[in-house]
Structures are given as structure tokens and as C-alpha cells.
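Lecture notes, unit on binding sites. The following record was shown on slide 14. It pairs a sequence with pyridoxal-5'-phosphate.
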Amino acid sequence: MLASQRSLFDIPSDIVYLNCAYMSPLMKPALEAGVAGLARKSRAWELTADAFFTGSEAFRSTAARLLDCSPDCVAIVPSASYGVATAARNLPVRKGKAILVLAEQFPSNYYSWQRLAAEQGADLKVVPWPENSDWTAAVLDGLTEEVAIAALPHVHWTSGGRLDLVRIGQECRKQGTRLVLDLTQSLGALPFSVREVQPDFAVAASYKWLMGPYTIGLLYVAPQWQNGIPLEENWIQRANARNFSNLILYTPEYEGGARRFDMGERSNFALVPAADRAMQQILEWSVAEISETCGALTRQLATAAGECGFSSPPEKLRAPHYLCLRRKSGIPPDLTHLLARRRIFVSVRGNSARVTPHVYNSAEDVERLITCLRLITAT
Ligand SMILES: Cc1ncc(COP(=O)(O)O)c(C=O)c1O
């Protein structure tokens, strides 16, 4: 378990921020790295050609450590939807086949598949919400032989349910189903390994559990797809990019590995170093420790909230960092406002109150939320 890391963040003492699944606060070292990166442009004459490559490669290496893969397999993308669209552009599916998604899946991992299925005459197959909270069993049930692509998260964003991706990955490989993952609500807070799961593509936006800025993310591309077609064609993905004076000697060759899938202007001098610095801090804390630390806080809350009539998935079926509370009578519609008035921040998503702590939170923060929940539900 980690001791409170609040001093690394600029969070006023009266704020109880339990909303990392919405947007993590930027830690001070990442902010400094971002500001320093932005300031580099005030001295444009010092931005050498090399600067377009060094920051991006550093980001790729750090991201690869979090994913447990080679840096060559990482592309730099602006959003989860961009990564999902890249996967949809490259994975084959045909009439009579299906693409599997979860009920209430996040839109960025839904619309591209809906379009692809419609274009190809394939079906979009939706795994129904499991009343027993067991998303893994529900997915394994749905993985029938016509499923060509399974597009899934590690953590279901409105229930907090955790999918056993190692098992699902095995099953996908057994029947030739391609696995695409949206790790935006998990990478950085829930242990994950590309080597163990073996997805075809996996994307994560940086601004939640990777604790980076908005509009940057990472995309894992398995080696067998690295000769694919990127969403954009830009100069820096090409093999001759390092020689600025010869860029008009157009070449069909791309840079190696997943780099061809990088977004345009991927060298972003402010966002890339900030996101990289945040990921380095996560690695220093260790994802396992973050998970355990958040898990102790959500356990404390789940127990007390249960006494006020809220239910949550059983601990072994949910992600430790992600607690979704439901109530038979529904979530009070003004819950987030009532809490915000008391300087406590959570989200309501679907039919759940979503409470997502991080290492800047403490047992006292959770106690403050519990006290308010008792008051609100008593009235
Ligand atoms: C599961 C999930 N995926 C992705 C995103 C963000 O998607 P995008 O980067 O396409 O805006 C969110 C944001 O809430 C999310 O909850």
C-alpha cells in the first residue's frame, strides 16, 4: 500500500476528489514537464529536427513498459476513438460474421464497430448486462464462432465490472477472433500485460488512469498488423522523415513498427513530455501498488455504502480502483450537486454513482463521502 501522494498534486485541502475515472488531476511534475515543453516553442530556433523524435521515442518506451511490450509496438494517438478507428480500418470482417461489444459500452469503442458492421453486412452482437455481475462469463458465452472481432474494455465503465482478459484472450485465439481493447478506464491502475493477454490492438487515452493531459494516448498494435493502413498519411511516419531537406523525395516506406499509426503532429512538445512524466511516476509507484491502495479505499466505501442501501458488484468481479454504487430506488438525481456543494466529487454514469479514488485520496476522504451519503439517503 502506498502512503498518500497528495503532496505531488495541487488539490486544496477541503477537496475530496474521487473522480479519477472522469479526469485525473495533473500531478505537479507532469505539469512542469508540459509547461517546459510548451515553453520550448518560445525559442523556436532551439527546436532542432531531433526534438521531433526524442520526446516521442521516450513516450513510446515508457508506454511500452506499462503495456509490457516492445516500444516498436506503440503508436501515439490523440484519443481512444482514434485507436479504435485504426483497429476498425485494419481488421477484416465480412457478411455473416459478428463484432462483439458489451451492453452500455463506451461510445468511443462502439460507433466505429457499428459503422464497420453496417458497411460489411456483419452483425453487431451486444453482450447483455449480467445480473450476477460476471462480465467474463457473459463474454465467454457470447464468443461464438461467428464473432470475428471482440471489442472490449478491461473494466466496464458504468458497472466497474472487471473482465478476465487473459481467459478471454485465450478463447479468442482458440477460435480466431481478433481482440481489440479499450484500456482507458484501467491502464495505469489495474495490472495488465500485452504478453499475457495478446490483443491485436489496445488503446488508452492518457487523461484518466495514465494521469496525463487531455488529447494524447497510446495504441498497442500487435506485430501482425504493423504493415496495416494508418488513418492519416503524414511526413513523420515515413522512413525519410529525419532528413527535413529531402521530405519531398516521397517514399512508400514507413518508419518501423507501429510508428506508421502515429497521429499527425505526434511530436506535440507540451502533451508528450507531460504524459510521459505521468507514466514514469505511475511506474515508480507501480501499478500493483496503485491498485491495492485504491482497492482498500473502495472496499471501505463499499461496506459503508451497503449499510445505506447501495449495492456494488462483488469484490472479486470488480476492478479495485473503480466502485459503482447502485440503489433499488435509484441514484438521487441531484447527488453529484449535493456532494459538490460539500466539495466532494464523484460522477453518475448510467444508473450508478461512480467513485474512483487514486493515490492522493485517504481513508478520511472516504469517511467524508460516507457521512454525506448517510445524510442524503436519510432524507
Ligand atoms: C471507457 C472509455 N473509453 C474511452 C474514453 C475516452 O474516449 P476518447 O478518448 O475517444 O474521447 C472514456 C471517457 O470517459 C471512457 O470512459
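Take-home: The CA atoms of residues 286 and 373 lie 32 Å apart.
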